[in-house]
Design goal:
The chain contains twelve helices and twelve strands. It has a five-stranded antiparallel β-sheet, with helices on both faces. It has a five-stranded mixed β-sheet with strand order 7-9-10-12-11. It is an alpha+beta fold.
């Protein structure tokens, strides 16, 4: 039994801490563990945003490069011999892996590099590509939708190939500089287009190229990131399931065992202690096991106490019933008076027994709620002896108390309950002491404990009976003492209170072979 020493209760009325999320209470522990670990993988998937930005930067660099290349080509055509324009366009187209088209001032196409030489690129028909390419394009669309990528228009050749049909040439003529744009080929690869007017006013030139390498680079990086994400997700899920298995399964096992303990009364049902686990789950299992054992002991003790109470009350009730039945049949006034005296004694005995039983049944509950405070044993005993002297409770027995110095014998406890212990011990010592006998009380510190001795000059207690005297309803009174005057609960109550204060009580022989009993109580010393 551990009393409530702390004065602050940190538990909330609703059973939830201030940082708990109410929505999470609807999820199992396994789901929560999986969600937390998958969220970490989702953060890793954020790398796809970076790859999308990486693709945009690559595309922007190609657009800048296309404008620069087209500017160089336009300057070369403007300053070169008009007779050599076809050769220049063919050479530049081959070197840049691009298609160059020259348009006259009226917008008609006059030179096309694809007509002068073998095409430097060719659009791929998606229908002719293998299934993995289709999967790659689907993955591209999915990722671009996931990262909210800006849409890119599809590339298409104008039906009438004139300058006015190319937005890049129209924009370049208005801006007097090279203008570029990007679109998507049928196989979802970038098409870079750039247009510029010639400086000598002899027309305009258009550059188009299929930048398939951008798609290859981005797809390779995306594949690497997705592979890392998938591996990390698989490992995270497996580790989450393993962690859930090591946490959730033992908790479920403990819950089922606790349910069996609640539903059954068999002593074989017990909470598993899990001695192999040294973590918090192991601590919880051992705490629950100890708690269930303590509850079972408490229940067994309550049942035994109820049986003892029933047995003890039956004796005075039987005597009272016999006396009352005898009154109906006896006419002699003297016998009637004797029977009435017996009945009165039985009633007083029952009343005393009920009061003591009530006190004994409340001890455990009151100690569990008690707030312990420093108690000076010497001062408390001195006040107790003064009250007993005023009430003449010692019945001619002398009590000698070796008062310790102030604050030398201090313990943490409930003053009222500890006073009940010493009052019961003194009542017991006085009842066993002869007329004019002496009861000695000594309280001294001994290391981390305070030791209190209460010694009398009575007949003493045999070694084999020293444990029995602390049992409930055990009463072995001196010869000649009135029967039923004691309930046999005084020493049992004293032991319960002492153990509730983390102390011990036992019976020793008096030193020097003197007759009598010596009760020794050890209580933890109050630190500080």
């Amino acid at each position: 039994m551990e009393p409530d020493i702390a004065t602050q209760n940190e538990d909330r009325p609703d059973g939830e801490s201030g940082l708990s999320l109410r929505w999470s209470a609807r999820l199992s522990l396994t789901t929560r563990i999986l969600v937390v670990n998958v969220l970490a993988i989702a953060l890793l998937a954020g790398g796809l945003f970076y790859l999308n930005n990486y693709r945009d930067r690559l595309t922007e660099e190609r657009l800048v490069q296309a404008r620069l290349q087209l500017t160089i080509v336009a300057d070369a055509l403007s300053s070169g011999d008009p007779q050599h324009k076809n050769a220049l366009i063919r050479q530049f187209s081959s070197h840049l892996s691009a298609r160059l088209r020259l348009y006259a001032p009226d917008g008609t196409k006059i030179i096309d590099s694809f007509a002068l030489a073998k095409p430097s690129y060719q659009f791929v028909d998606p229908e002719t590509e293998p299934l993995r390419k289709d999967a790659a394009r689907i993955l591209d669309r999915t990722i671009e939708s996931f990262v909210f990528s800006a849409p890119i228009p599809d590339f298409s050749e104008p039906a009438n190939d004139v300058a006015a049909e190319w937005p890049e040439l129209v924009a370049a003529q208005n801006a007097s500089r090279a203008v570029s744009s990007v679109s998507l080929a049928p196989d979802r690869t970038p098409v870079i287009a750039a247009g510029k007017s010639l400086a000598d006013g002899t027309g305009s030139i258009l550059l188009t190229s299929n930048a398939r390498d951008i798609t290859r680079i981005v797809r390779a990086e995306r594949s690497s990131v997705l592979l890392v994400i998938l591996v990390a997700a698989a490992v995270s899920i497996l580790l989450s399931l393993f962690l859930a298995r090591t946490i959730v399964r033992p908790i479920r096992k403990l819950a089922r065992a606790a349910l069996r303990v609640r539903m059954g009364r068999s002593d074989e049902i017990a909470i598993p202690r899990m001695p192999g686990r040294l973590d918090e789950i192991g601590q919880l299992s051992r705490a629950l096991s100890a708690m269930s054992t303590a509850l079972r002991d408490r229940i067994n003790a309550t049942e035994a106490f109820a049986a003892d109470v029933s047995h003890e009350i039956k004796n005075p009730l039987a005597s009272l019933r016999s006396a009352l039945e005898g009154l109906e049949r006896v006419d002699d006034p003297d016998l009637q008076k004797q029977l009435l005296d017996v009945a009165n004694d039985d009633v007083r005995r029952i009343d005393r027994l009920i009061n003591d039983i009530s006190d004994a049944s409340r001890v455990d509950a009151e100690l569990a709620r008690a707030k312990f405070e420093p108690i000076d044993i010497g001062k408390m005993l001195e006040q107790l002896l003064a009250v007993r002297e005023q009430r003449a409770s010692n019945l001619g027995v002398h009590i000698a108390f070796a008062r310790p110095a102030k604050d030398v014998a201090k313990v943490m406890g409930d003053g009222g309950r500890l006073e009940r212990v010493f009052s019961n011990l003194l009542d017991n010592a006085v009842s066993f002491s002869p007329d004019g006998g002496l009861v000695e009380i000594l309280a001294t510190p001994d290391g981390d404990e305070i030791v209190i001795h209460v010694a009398d000059q009575g007949p003493g207690v045999l070694p084999e009976q020293r444990e029995q005297v602390f049992q409930r309803f055990h009463s072995d009174r001196p010869d000649g003492e009135a029967f039923g005057k004691h309930s046999g609960l005084g020493l049992a109550i004293a032991k319960t209170i002492v153990e509730g204060h983390q102390g011990t009580i036992r019976i020793l022989d008096r030193p020097g072979g003197q007759s009598g009993a010596c009760f020794e109580i050890r209580l933890p010393k109050a630190m500080g």
